[in-house]
Write a structure and sequence with these properties.
Blueprint: E1 2-6, H1 13-22, E2 26-30, H2 33-38, E3 41-44, H3 50-58, H4 63-73, E4 78-81, H5 83-86, E5 91-92, E6 98-99, E7 106-110, E8 122-130, E9 143-149, E10 151-155, E11 161-166, E12 170-177, E13 180-183, H6 191-203
């Protein structure tokens, strides 16, 4: 079983690669759409601004088409991490209005805590509270994970929210739809909790 870890110049590739290897994955770090087209599972990392990540992904010729074909048509398991999760949205509003992949309807907006003493970015360990939905959402279990972000995903449909956390108000910690899972936190930085999630992803057959 081959895991395609997408290299588009905007991901924490080394750490994610090591975490996947630690749970026994056969990982191909790739910017080749042909590799993605033949992968059994796909992981899309992402670090930085939404717009830069979206442009970086679209800048790899044929990559968005390969992802769309393999994930949405063929139904292979997909995991988006941090900005890789946010790119699932219809659009991101970080500094500018930039289209996302549009796989899960919603938008990515600045975190605005109800309590102005709460700092942004949301950084460090925080609780992950699953919403009890079936399917991909079942991969996310209660626990604590490591977060680092200033913008948050706001899905249009509540059923697409797999888990929540709290940082001066509710923040979406994970989204899920059919064979697609996105997590706002970093599994590769979340010690045993994160490794267990990645292990469940490897065993998952949607």
């Amino acid at each position: 079983m081959t895991i395609a870890l997408i290299d588009y110049g905007a991901g924490n590739l080394h750490s994610v690669h090591n975490a996947l290897k630690a749970v026994g994955a056969d990982v191909a770090v790739t910017a080749d759409p042909a590799v993605v087209a033949g992968a059994d599972r796909i992981v899309l990392p992402g670090v930085g601004a939404f717009g830069a990540c979206a442009r970086g992904l679209r800048g790899v010729e044929g990559m968005v088409e390969a992802l769309d074909h393999r994930v949405r048509r063929d139904g292979v398991p997909f995991l988006g991490i941090c900005v890789g999760m946010q790119l699932l949205a219809t659009r991101g509003l970080e500094f500018e209005d930039v289209p996302g992949l549009g796989w899960i309807a919603g938008e990515v907006r600045l975190i605005e805590p109800a309590d102005n003493t709460i700092k942004v970015p949301h950084m460090g360990w925080n609780d992950v509270a699953p919403m009890g939905h079936p399917g991909a959402a079942e991969l996310v279990e209660p626990g604590e994970a490591y977060f680092l972000h200033s913008y948050a995903f706001h899905p249009e449909r509540g059923h697409d929210i797999a888990a929540m956390t709290d940082h001066g108000g509710g923040i979406v910690a994970a989204v899920a739809h059919e064979n697609i899972l996105g997590v706002q936190f970093h599994p590769e930085k979340s010690q045993r909790y994160g490794l267990d999630l990645l292990s469940r992803f490897l065993d998952w057959n949607p």
